[in-house]
């Protein structure tokens, strides 16, 4: 992986969009995650700061901009520093 990039499944887990890294990978493989408007094809998709990620979960859809890649899975307050929520109407 290039410097300044991180695997998508790892970031989704760090940012608490999935309870485990395995579940994060399944979200991607099931087609529920887009990066910059394009469906992510693999859990190993490289993610960079500034990318826009869309996660279609069971009860909601999250549209976020990546602010940081993170180094570990911390608590919810720490996870929320990894992204900024975007208003889907403003894109």
Automatic annotation (TrEMBL):
<dbReference type="GO" id="GO:0003723">
    <property type="term" value="F:RNA binding"/>
</dbReference>
<dbReference type="Pfam" id="PF01479">
    <property type="entry name" value="S4"/>
</dbReference>
<dbReference type="InterPro" id="IPR036986">
    <property type="entry name" value="S4_RNA-bd_sf"/>
</dbReference>
<keyword id="KW-0346">Stress response</keyword>
<feature type="domain" description="RNA-binding S4">
    <location>
        <begin position="6"/>
        <end position="71"/>
    </location>
</feature>
<keyword id="KW-0694">RNA-binding</keyword>
<dbReference type="InterPro" id="IPR002942">
    <property type="entry name" value="S4_RNA-bd"/>
</dbReference>
<protein>
    <submittedName>
        <fullName>Heat shock protein Hsp15</fullName>
    </submittedName>
</protein>
């Amino acid at each position: 992986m290039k410097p300044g990039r991180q695997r998508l499944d790892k970031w989704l887990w760090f940012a608490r969009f999935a309870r485990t890294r395995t579940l994060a990978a399944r979200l991607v493989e099931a087609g529920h995650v887009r990066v910059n408007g394009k469906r992510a094809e693999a859990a190993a998709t490289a993610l960079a700061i500034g990318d826009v990620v869309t996660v279609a979960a069971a009860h909601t859809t999250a549209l976020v901009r990546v602010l940081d890649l993170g180094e570990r899975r911390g608590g919810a307050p720490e996870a929320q520093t990894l992204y900024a929520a975007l208003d889907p109407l403003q894109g």
